[in-house]
Amino acid sequence: MSEKELLICVLNRPEAVEDVVGAFLEIGVTGCTIIDSKGMGKLVSQDIPIFAGFKSMFSGVRESNVTIISVMDSELVDEVIELIEKVYMSFSEASSGIVFTLPVKRVKGLSVEGD
């Protein structure tokens, strides 16, 4: 069984999720979970009145985000991140989102040929 990683990607432009997932399919990533999410800046600046004065600290706060979670072969991770930046935007831009991976030690229920 090849090594796996959990990729977590938060997109601050939810309208881009279809393009990103479509690109995943093109390179062989056949499964992911998509979650509507809200960042801390949104919560602090609007939903907790005592912190409303901190709104200016959270420039570019979005109404909502989309979080994509996918377990994939470690060999695909670099290609997937490059693809996300090509289809979506570079994560070096302010308030663009975040992508990171974590090693996966054990997986059950993941149907992948050859595993």
Produce the secondary structure layout.
Layout lengths: L3 E8 L5 H10 L6 E5 L2 H8 L17 E9 L3 H11 L9 E8 L11
Antiparallel strand pairs: 1-3, 1-4, 2-3
Question: How would you explain this protein's 3D organization?
Answer:
- It is a single chain.
- The protein is α+β, with helices and mostly antiparallel strands and 115 residues long.
- It has a single domain (4-103), classed as Alpha-Beta Plaits (2-Layer Sandwich).
- Helix content is 25%, strand content 26%.
- Strands 2-3-1-4 form a four-stranded antiparallel β-sheet, with no helix packed on it.
- The radius of gyration is 16 Å and the shape is globular.
- The model has no long low-confidence stretch (mean pLDDT 81).
In short:
The chain is α+β, with helices and mostly antiparallel strands and 115 residues long. It has a single domain (4-103), classed as 2-Layer Sandwich (Alpha-Beta Plaits), CATH 3.30.70.120.
Key descriptive features of the protein:
115 residues; 26% strand; alpha+beta; Alpha-Beta Plaits; four-stranded antiparallel β-sheet; 3 helices; globular
